[in-house]
Write a structure and sequence with these properties.
alpha/beta; Rossmann fold; Dihydrodipicolinate Reductase, domain 2; five-stranded parallel β-sheet; four-stranded mixed β-sheet; 11 helices; globular
């Protein structure tokens, strides 16, 4: 729809009612982006940074946050428009402020959501748990008529993520799992969502142009062009709370699985585990939300001749995934309207590192466009 104007004035638009668990950098970028594209992207050919301006009749500005959960004392009890900018958030500022919101951040269950080593770092860099008692997630989702819950909890929050997933199952809310805790990709959880008639998507969000998608494309290129990959690594550094949280190596088990399988799934032959190293590497405070990826692939080409590729990618980490999340939210809404249930396979394959079924990105993208086209009168 390049060049086509999107009419807003005088039009009563349908909304997508969203709850967010974790008002960190990713949530802040998402909230800022919703307002940015609501105000400054009236045409598809001007909406750079989005893969879809109009998705099945829904615009980014049709995403309406109706509930928010966190555990940090600087966010709990504050309106979500203020909490989005509260410490320790450090993401790129897309907008200096957000419109005043009636939604107040409520205390979620802590469980395993905060790594103990966070207490060893200054408050402006790390989490500080609020003293409030956790609210009943199910009650909040019901009271607010939420349709989709976006899970932005810290990596390694296994018990906490499951608590939000259970609340979604109890209330009929779609679960959008942006972190590497395997819910949607787990067959038992997936079947539970299917049996409950709830569409869901996960696990572990890909960025728009990030380390994982770049590494996947390079691996696929080598394979498609007849080059055998012998060794490869992906090293990532950053200075946000995500990287600080991941200094705890025991919280990284699922993250390394997720990132590694996202890449090796594109290689059509077995590659030994010792020849692949993919994962977060270190916390560099001054980088803040800037993530830097160092990528290397070593291969064997014609006649055994060696081929080596090295790349460096620098991105603002949180905005880099926000455009993907906006698409997933809208796709989930469309799936709900069409009566779909359970893990959305094509959507998850295209937008997540650890989906229920891995696909080539081009295949998943084509099937998504076919789904969207099917709904056009």
């Amino acid at each position: 729809m390049a060049g086509e104007s999107v009419e807003r004035k005088g039009e009563e638009r349908r909304k997508i009612r969203v709850a967010i668990a974790g008002i960190g950098n990713c949530a802040s970028a998402l909230l800022q982006g919703i307002e940015y594209y609501r105000e400054s992207a009236p045409r598809a050919d001007e909406a750079w940074g989005l893969m879809h301006l109009d998705m099945g009749g829904y615009l980014p500005g049709d995403v309406e946050v109706v509930a928010a959960f966190d555990v940090d004392r600087r966010k709990v009890g504050r309106p979500v428009d203020q909490a989005a900018f509260a410490a320790p958030n450090c993401t790129t500022v897309i907008r200096d402020s957000l419109p005043p919101s009636p939604v107040v951040v409520q205390m979620g269950p802590v469980l395993d959501g905060v790594a103990p080593h966070m207490a060893d770092y200054p408050a402006e860099q790390s989490f500080r748990v609020a003293e409030e008692k956790a609210v009943a997630i199910e009650a909040v989702l019901e009271e607010t008529d939420a349709e989709v819950l976006v899970c932005y909890l810290p990596v390694g929050s296994e018990k906490a993520v499951r608590a939000y997933a259970e609340a979604c199952l109890a209330t009929g809310v779609s679960f959008l799992n942006c972190i590497p805790v395997f819910i949607v990709s787990d067959p038992q959880w997936g079947e539970r969502f299917r049996a409950a008639g709830i569409p869901c998507a996960g696990d572990d969000i890909k960025s728009q142009v990030g380390a994982t998608i770049l590494h996947r494309l390079v691996a696929r290129l080598f394979a498609d062009r007849g080059v055998k990959i012998e060794h490869t690594y992906q090293l990532n550094t950053g200075g946000n709370t995500d990287f600080l949280n991941m200094l705890s190596r025991e919280r990284l088990i699922s993250k390394k699985i997720s990132k590694t399988e996202a890449v090796t799934s594109q290689i059509p032959y077995e590659i030994d585990a010792e020849d692949v190293h993919i994962g977060p590497s270190d916390y560099v405070l001054w980088q803040e939300d800037n993530k830097v990826c160092f990528l290397r692939v070593e291969g064997t080409g014609f006649g055994g001749a060696p081929i080596e590729l090295e790349a460096r990618l620098s991105v603002q980490d949180s905005p880099n995934s926000a455009g993907i999340v906006i698409d997933v939210i809208r796709y989930l809404k469309l799936a709900r309207e069409r009566g779909q249930a359970g893990p959305l396979l094509e959507l998850s394959a295209y937008t997540m590192k650890h989906p229920p079924v891995q696909m080539r990105d081009t295949t998943a993208a084509r099937r998504i466009e076919e789904f969207l086209a099917d709904g056009v009168a």
